[in-house]
Write a structure and sequence with these properties.
There is one protein chain. With about 150 residues, the protein is of the alpha+beta class. The protein has one domain. Helices cover about 45% and strands about 20% of the residues. The protein is built from four helices and four strands. A four-stranded antiparallel beta sheet has the order 1-2-3-4. A hairpin with a 5-residue loop joins strand 2 and strand 3. The longest helix is centred in the first third of the chain and has 44 residues. It is elongated, with a radius of gyration of 24 Å. The termini are far apart.
């Protein structure tokens, strides 16, 4: 009796796995995309902070910001080096996937400040309709009071 019952139950777990496999793949792709997008967002915020710290060195930098765009671009690209796009061939930060812009502003405390905006566009990944787009453009702005 036990032997015949065992034979009739064979393949139940294989059928269950086959029916749930699309959901497992869907969850894996979502987690994979979410990880890439999270890393890109964190890298963009870090790049904006580093460039703002460099840009806030002194009032002299504010006067010569056009000559130092290469330095700010290099710093931003260094922070985004481990992002998913291959940024090793980039030499300027004036078009996507990386745009770095700088301006002198008056901070919340009334003092001169540097305002830096970094935009980063991710690679095209697998979209999940209704949940995750296939590609994002992240933008982070950081203001830091001028030092020195």
């Amino acid at each position: 009796m036990k032997n015949s019952r065992r034979k009739s139950c064979r393949g139940g777990s294989a059928l269950e796995m086959a029916m749930l496999m699309p959901w497992y793949i869907f969850l894996f792709v979502g987690a994979f995309d979410w990880g890439f997008f999270s890393h890109a967002l964190i890298s963009t915020a870090s790049a904006a902070r580093v460039v703002a710290l460099y840009s806030s060195q002194s009032a002299a930098y504010a006067a010569t910001n056009s000559t130092n765009t290469t330095n700010t671009c290099t710093l931003a690209l260094e922070e985004l080096r481990y992002a998913d796009n291959d940024l090793s061939t980039l030499t300027t930060c004036t078009a996507l996937p990386v745009i770095v812009s700088y301006s002198s502003v008056t901070g919340a405390d009334g003092q001169a400040a540097a305002s830096v905006t970094v935009q980063y566009q991710t690679l095209q990944l697998i979209p999940i309709p209704g949940l995750l787009a296939g590609q994002f453009t992240f933008q982070r702005t950081v203001q830091m009071r001028l030092r020195g």
